[in-house]
């Protein structure tokens, strides 16, 4: 069995005596798309920062595969309107050659913006440029924090499909995995292999079709689950829901902090 790219074990996080994460376990394996969902204040961004190694937990362990390369795509990029920064220059700041920049933009479908100022891009174009930047150093895992922020519904569907395509394309090459944070429940379920629902703790996790039927998920998101677009695919194994991580009595009824 392949070694997990990132494994978080029994992660606890406190800020000024306020518990943000309590006993969270998370594992991302090569080639899979894992999506974190949960309400505002659930601890998703904090968990991602710990996964990236940008923040140490109050307790618990982070283990990463030796030599792991991470590509990170932030929620937003704030650029001063007066700054003369083209897409080409922005991506070349990573130290990559023009050939690599062009290849990354080609993979994300925006080669036409190479010489455009960043400020002139549409929301969808900017997110594709940020995704191209995350791909430049051939990562083993892409960490995407709200990747469709500021993009219209048509662009959101296209971006999620692109993320899925990139993962599928990489399976014969880098076997790249994706760890994604999203609030876009209607769309994200169609583009993920495993969903982890958190609200300070892991409420439930597993294949999207199973998670949407889990009582903890239904308590948290209510009737929204009936309208979700579910990605169905064939497996030669079965997914469990929350079996070894949490006490089955725990649920998401705990309020956000």
SSE layout:
Elements: E1 6-15, E2 18-28, E3 33-37, H1 44-52, E4 59-64, E5 70-73, H2 87-92, H3 98-107, H4 123-135, E6 141-145, H5 153-170, E7 177-181, H6 185-188, E8 194-199, E9 201-206, H7 208-211, H8 215-221
Parallel strand pairs: 3-7, 3-8, 5-6, 6-7
Antiparallel strand pairs: 1-2, 1-4, 8-9
Helix pairs in contact: 3-4
Quick overview:
With 257 residues, the protein is of the alpha/beta class. The protein has 8 helices and 9 strands.
Q: How do the strands of the widest beta sheet line up side by side? A: 5-6-7-3-8-9
For CATH, the homologous superfamily of the largest domain is named as: P-loop containing nucleotide triphosphate hydrolases
CATH topology of the largest domain: Rossmann fold
Broad structural category: alpha/beta
Count of strand segments: 9
**In percent, how much strand structure appears in the residues?**
15-25%
Mean pLDDT over all positions: 82
| Unreliably modeled segments | 225-257
Order of helices and strands: EEEHEEHHHEHEHEEHH
User: What is the CATH-assigned architecture of the largest domain?
Assistant: 3-Layer(aba) Sandwich
Q: What is the total domain count?
A: 2
Question: What's the end-to-end separation, in Å?
Answer: 38 Å
């Amino acid at each position: 069995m392949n070694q997990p790219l990132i494994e978080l074990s029994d992660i606890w996080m406190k800020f000024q005596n306020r518990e943000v994460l309590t006993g969270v376990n998370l594992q991302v394996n090569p080639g899979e798309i894992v999506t974190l969902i949960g309400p505002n204040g659930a601890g998703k961004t904090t968990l991602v920062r710990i996964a990236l190694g940008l923040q140490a937990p109050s307790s618990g362990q982070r283990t990463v595969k030796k030599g792991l390369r991470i590509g990170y795509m932030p929620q937003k990029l704030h650029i001063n309107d007066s700054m003369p920064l083209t897409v080409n220059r922005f991506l070349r700041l990573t130290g990559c050659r023009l050939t690599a920049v062009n290849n990354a933009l080609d993979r994300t479908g925006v080669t036409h913006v190479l010489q455009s100022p960043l400020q002139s891009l549409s929301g969808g174009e900017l997110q594709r440029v940020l995704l191209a930047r995350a791909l430049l150093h051939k990562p083993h895992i892409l960490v995407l924090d709200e990747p469709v922020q500021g993009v219209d519904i048509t662009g959101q569907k296209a971006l999620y499909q692109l993320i899925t395509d990139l993962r599928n394309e990489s399976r014969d090459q880098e076997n790249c995995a994706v760890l994604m944070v999203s609030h876009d429940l209607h769309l994200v379920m169609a583009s993920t292999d495993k969903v982890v629902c958190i609200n300070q703790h892991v409420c439930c996790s597993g294949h999207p079709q199973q998670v949407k039927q889990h009582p903890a998920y239904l308590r948290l998101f209510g009737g929204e689950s009936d309208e979700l677009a579910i990605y169905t695919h064939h497996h030669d194994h079965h997914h469990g829901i929350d079996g070894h991580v949490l006490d089955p009595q725990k649920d998401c009824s705990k309020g956000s902090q």
